[in-house]
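Long-time lurker, first post.

We've been arguing in lab meeting about whether zinc ion would sit comfortably in this protein at all. Half the group thinks yes, half thinks no, and nobody has a model to point at. So I'm putting the question to the forum: if I give you the sequence and the SMILES, can you give me back a predicted structure of the complex? Inputs are below. Any interpretation is welcome too.
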Amino acid sequence: MSKAQIKVYAINRTLGSGTYGTADFFKRESNGSLTPIGLSSVKAGVNYDMTRIRLDAGNMADSNYSAIERTKTTGHEFGHALGLGHFEEGLRPHQYAHWMRSGQKSLAYPTSEDAAHLAYKY
Ligand SMILES: [Zn+2]
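Top reply:
Settle the argument with this. Predicted structure of the protein with zinc ion, as tokens:
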């Protein structure tokens, strides 16, 4: 069984202006300490043991995020924790409605496009 973890934090105006959520990746060393892994390494297939999700409630409030936009942003960051990217670049860029698109989007539920991304990856 995997011991991979997702840790989620609600923060208040900690991320840069215009950033509402982040997902950062870490490898657990044999002594238990955590080493950050860059996104490019994650994209290249390097395994990670922990994802830290930070959701910036203050920045969302400053941009008048609706409840649906907050839900979408939260789901978006969990998508990153599962190893999904934005699908806005690379071999098959597209702009269909899905939670992994960046930005302030009013999308209450993940779409069949999100399901296709997960099915493709796993
Ligand atoms: Zn993102």
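For your lab meeting: Residues 76, 80, 86, 102 surround zinc ion (CB under 6 Å). The chain has a mean pLDDT of 91. Whichever side wins, do check it experimentally.
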